[in-house]
Specification:
With 390 residues, the chain is an alpha+beta fold. It contains eleven helices and ten strands. It binds flavin-adenine dinucleotide.
Length: 390
């Protein structure tokens, strides 16, 4: 078994690390102070993404993406995950279901999004529909040659900077006809309801949008009527693996910072690390990080290069998301503790990570929902997908 990165992957990882250090981390204070970037900061960050060739890493070169496989995407996102303020979201990553569009849809939505000229936001969640998307009440009804959409979507990440939505709706209110529509934000009837504030500082917002009599053509249906869950599931799988990557990256930074602080800071005439209470916290952080990272690398490698099936990957991605995000929660909690009062100051990266990592146990399916997915897999096919490795 060869567990070494090949030279191409190693080079990519190093470039992503440099990008994080040279572009993302220097923007952290600005992001925290302004609750987002200034227009100048945002413009220079966008230029940097293009210069460093990190636009649309998840899409094929034919569509203007970098064409990285899932393992390579994970290597890159792990490095970006070191940055606070969710600055990892600056390099745009158009959602993967856009690749299922028609040629005309790709020309209008995907390719400009890969070039950074447009930006998408994926809108499923509603006030009454979160973990259970069958409770969505946003509907599309046929009216002549058009479709008319009514409803409201919550927590639409990057909805402030997006100019179109992948909108998860039920055709005629029927959960068996869940469908994704591509809706331009400037279509009459699309209205910003409000922009709530959240626990974390995030480079973009998560607004609530209303869709009131929004009229679109047949050509805005992505992948066909009734394919909504399938497309959304593809999005979930990719995002869950990338949450795994970013939480491992954030955990690594938390450990780095904690080790450095515990070595430098002295109390009672000794560095903190000389107290076994602190040393043991660091030891647990290191061991748990190793376990999460090993799982992440194994599953992403298998997905990219080992021929994992679609169902198998769905089941595995749930375990990656669950384990990596829960591990990160424990690691960052200890990091704050090790930093003492400084760990509670917003000017410290560990404080920001503490607030920012919390959502990783909630979005893209809560930890409970990941356990539901894993439980379903156990009931249907047994534990082989989790335990059966040589
Ligand atoms: C910052 C942020 C950004 C987001 N971005 C987006 C976005 O871009 N697009 C989008 O569509 N959505 C987005 N979401 C929504 C997110 O995916 C949902 O919040 C999440 O799926 C949970 O849904 P809910 O909040 O309605 O909680 P609920 O579904 O109401 O769940 C509440 C609690 O009940 C538990 N629960 C529910 N069902 C079960 C069950 N069967 N078994 C055990 N426990 C259960 C949950 O785990 C949770 O603890 C975002 C959310 C946040 C906070």
């Amino acid at each position: 078994m060869d567990l070494e990165l090949d030279p191409t992957d190693r080079d990519l990882q190093a470039r992503a690390r440099d990008f994080t250090r040279e572009v993302l981390i220097p923007l952290e204070d600005e992001c925290e102070e302004h609750d987002g970037l200034t227009p100048q900061g945002a413009a220079s960050a966008k230029r940097a993404v293009l210069e460093w060739d990190f636009a649309a890493i998840n899409h094929r070169p034919e569509d203007g993406g970098r064409g990285l496989d899932l393992f390579q995407q994970m290597l890159v996102e792990e490095q970006w995950g070191h940055a606070t303020g969710a600055l990892w979201d600056i390099p745009w990553r158009p959602s993967i279901p856009l690749a299922s569009g028609t040629e005309e849809q790709k020309e209008r939505f995907l390719r400009p999004a890969c070039r950074g000229e447009r930006r998408d936001a994926y809108a499923i969640t509603e006030e009454g529909a979160g973990s259970d998307p069958s409770m969505v009440t946003t509907t599309a009804r046929r009216d002549g040659d058009d479709w008319v959409i009514d409803g409201e979507k919550w927590h639409v990440t990057s909805g402030d900077v997006a100019d179109f939505f992948e909108l998860h709706v039920l055709v005629d209110g029927d959960p068996a006809q869940a469908t994704v529509f591509l809706v331009d934000k400037d279509t009459p009837g699309v209205r910003l309801v409000r922009t709530p504030k959240y626990m974390h500082t995030f480079v973009f917002e998560h607004p609530i949008f209303a869709f009131e009599g929004v009229r679109v053509g047949e050509d805005r249906i992505l992948g066909g009527i009734g394919r909504g869950y399938e497309l959304t599931k593809d999005w979930f799988v990719e995002e869950r693996l990338m949450i795994g990557a970013r939480t491992v990256g954030a955990s690594t930074r938390a450990l780095d910072l904690s080790l450095a602080f515990a070595s430098d800071r002295e109390q009672f005439g000794r560095p903190l690390v000389a107290f076994q209470a602190i040393e043991f916290m660091l030891a647990d952080m290191a061991a748990e990080l190793m376990a999460a990272k090993s799982l992440l690398y194994r599953v992403c490698w298998q997905a990219a290069r080992g021929g994992t099936g679609r169902k198998e990957l769905h089941a595995l991605a749930a375990a990656v998301k669950l384990l990596c995000s829960e591990t990160a929660g424990r690691i960052i909690d200890r990091a704050v503790q090790i930093h003492g009062g400084r760990g509670y100051m917003r000017e410290q990266p560990v404080e920001r990570l503490y607030r920012e990592l919390r959502v990783d146990r909630i979005w893209e399916g809560t930890s409970e929902i990941q356990r539901v997915v894993i439980g379903n897999e156990l009931r249907k096919r047994g534990h082989g997908v989790y335990s059966g490795w040589v």
